[in-house]
Write the structure tokens for this entry.
Amino acid sequence: MNDPTTPYDWHRPAGHDVAAVEVHHPAPLAQVQHAAPLVPVQPGSIPAVASVVLPDGRVVTGYAIEPAKPEPVATKPAVSRTAVNIALGGIGFGAVCGGLVLLTTLIAALAALVHQLIILAAVIFGGWIAVQVFSASGHNGGNTFHIRKAVFKRNHFNG
């Protein structure tokens, strides 16, 4: 009983025997009584057995199986041509409205872009003018003009 090759006994120290096991058998349940006994029901009609002789002489016997019949397709009511035209007109109208919204958005975006480009050009050109005015006194070959004291005569500065 303490053979180390048997499973579950290898961990038990030598000299310890397994205790006797008491086996309990369950009692069967009382049988349920049905109001009416169950009787196998035969199909309404027994299909005919068909036999077919194959070209090599073998005979195959079996029941003929009827192919499954598809359910009849319900006929669809006719759709009025006017209703189709109204539906297509509504879809077209929605597409045109969406296109106009996109076109309006595109025009507004282009106008904002042009406005920003004009402002950018004004800033760059104004900065260039400011650099010219403030750096005119720094050039060796240039003239210094005092704008507040200048008198304009025939496109010449006289100071």
User: Anything to note?
Assistant: The mean pLDDT is 76.
